[in-house]
Amino acid sequence: MSQLSMRHRHQVQSVLAACPLIPVISIQHPDQVLPLGKALVEGGIRVLEVTLRTDHGLGAIRQLRKAFPDIWVGAGTVTHPTQYREAEAAGAQFVITPGVTDELLNYGLTAEAPLLPGVATMSEMMTGYARGYREFKFFPAEVSGGIPALKAFAGPFSDVTFCPTGGIRPETAGHYLALANVVAVGGTWLTPQDRMDAGDWRAIVELVQDSLARL
Ligand code: 3PG
């Protein structure tokens, strides 16, 4: 079986090491992309996961790459290699999937943008592990066992690290990050739609600052 290159692993490790909190972004209105990016970066964020859940995801990746050349910008909610290719063409520097398929894991081996595959179970993780993946998104983290599950994963696979996402709150992010096999956590709490719709970018700066200060 083909194996993941060290280049991919190092790039994913660099992304995860750049910032302990990764905002999961869904863009409903294209004019919110740049003010949101500015607020998140001003608050201290260095990694942005832009989901392809809306039609504006690819455009947002293009805009954010151009506006914030020093920040990691990646694509999330990628569920098929076609979307993976589109995300790469838009400039995504990494790709995150909510789960794993053989197609996505295989595509990630030779892709330009490295893959952070999403897993919820030991078996899914082992499917990626066999191809050389050692960094995973743990999703949906809270309902898949949360911190106790991550502690259990560390037993048989102490060389694997995770970015838990799904149900994480500012109060619990630090508890996850205290685990030896957690390097970053993700979530939508950093991008509240009501604040975005109100154009209250200051509230988002403060939310990010407050969330980072709690860690
Ligand atoms: C994701 O795709 O990572 C999740 O939607 C994030 O989950 P959350 O909304 O519970 O933070």
Structural overview:
By secondary structure, the protein is α/β, with parallel strands linked by helices. The chain has one domain (6-208): Aldolase class I (TIM Barrel), CATH 3.20.20. 45% of the residues lie in helices and 15% in strands. The protein has 10 helices and 9 strands. It has helices spanning 6-18, 33-43, 57-67, 81-90, 102-110, 122-129, 146-154, 170-177, 193-197, 201-213, and strands at 21-25, 47-51, 72-76, 95-96, 115-116, 118-119, 135-138, 161-164, 185-187. A 4-stranded parallel beta sheet has the order 3-2-1-9. A 3-stranded parallel beta sheet has the order 6-7-8. It is globular. The chain starts with 5 loop residues before the first helix and ends with a helix. Bound molecules: 3-phosphoglyceric acid.
